[in-house]
């Protein structure tokens, strides 16, 4: 009862992702305890059902540990090998050891069940040699097997203490913090399934009835209990294996259907809200809605959402801790290397929800994030091509106009300039990636930069600096169309007002070295009120 209490306290304290295996382990210890009490008071026939139920509970417990855990992400091969080992042990017990070689009072069913528990616990321990909880489970299983063999042969305090090893080992495994890793969710690996494993499983399932038939034909069924227990265990393993295959096949079909529908919706998406709606609809079908608390397409990651380690170009996702202990945050970057120039900022798909659900749909969510990244890149490139075509159309229409105009991106790089502006500056073509700052006189750059960074339209008066270092006074009118889907920039028109000022003001930023106070005062006044 102390072992049962320790397991319950460990589950309550460490809160593993799945508690069912640990409650099955506690139930098996309780069943073994009741069986021991009945055995001690001489009710051996009553104790036997509790012992058999203990083996069933422990078998289910260990199989639950292997379902979707990080230690054994694929338990199909383990189940096949267990079924084959169970059938092989039955054949060895019945035909090799024989009636003369049996170990007297040693129960064959207990030995076979103990060996199978040792095999599964040993597989868990070898999957992660640093997991103390798995080692303690193996130690408890070894104590059970040794007690089943040694206690009937030599009853006494020493052999009875082997069962104490079982109680202490399994109780300590639940108390150790590494017990959480036994049920930590992991993505389901792809298993194509090979024919030889199916043949092995079918042969293992056919061994118990074959042995029973052989003994029946010989006239006396001597090992009916052993055959029944072995057949039940093998049948349980086969049913578990088939249930796993059916469940994984159903998940694959659902995932394929949802991803196909999401891909069609993302291909038809014309803007970012449509992409966001398609992603949310797909996530709602891939994962249970109650298990997902947050789904967001973000343009920039906060410092708390960055990966714990520097993520390389091939990194498709990473995990972060959430507020709730049962939840995790999964971040899938929306970055595709060939199209980085389309969306340099990238962005990410951020999901917060139950760890087990996110781990189960991990691969599908990464695929969905890749499809969303393709859709966003397509929309960005289509908009860029549309703006380029608009600029080319504008250039063809106003090729002979005398208007001075330019289209400027949000970073003030000139995307298009009219021929009249290039003629005014004395240049045939502006260099690529030229900014408006480079055309404005240095003394006016700060004023123009601050005005264009603000929201809204406006009018400025400043000076352009030509290639020969002469200056041109202009009236600059700008329209803020950064929110316009087709423009996404500022449209700037200019008017040459140099002729409206006296010759002394043709070069308003020229330095005069004279010592004439009148000239300086008049120059300062004109500089202040020239507009």
From TrEMBL:
Keywords from the named record: Membrane, Transmembrane, Transmembrane helix
SUPFAM superfamilies (alphabetical): PYP-like sensor domain (PAS domain)
Biased composition (Basic and acidic residues): 499-514
PROSITE patterns: PAS (PS50112)
Species of the source: Actinoplanes teichomyceticus
Transmembrane regions listed in the UniProt entry: 22-42, 78-99, 105-124, 136-154, 160-176, 197-218, 224-243
Location of the region described as Disordered in the Swiss-Prot/TrEMBL record: 499-519
Gene3D superfamilies (UniProt xref): PAS domain
GO biological process: regulation of DNA-templated transcription
Organism superkingdom: Bacteria
Family matches, as Pfam families: PAS
Record domain PAS: where: 390-453
Matching InterPro entries: PAS (IPR000014), PAS-like_dom_sf (IPR035965), PAS_fold (IPR013767)
Protein name per UniProt: PAS domain S-box-containing protein
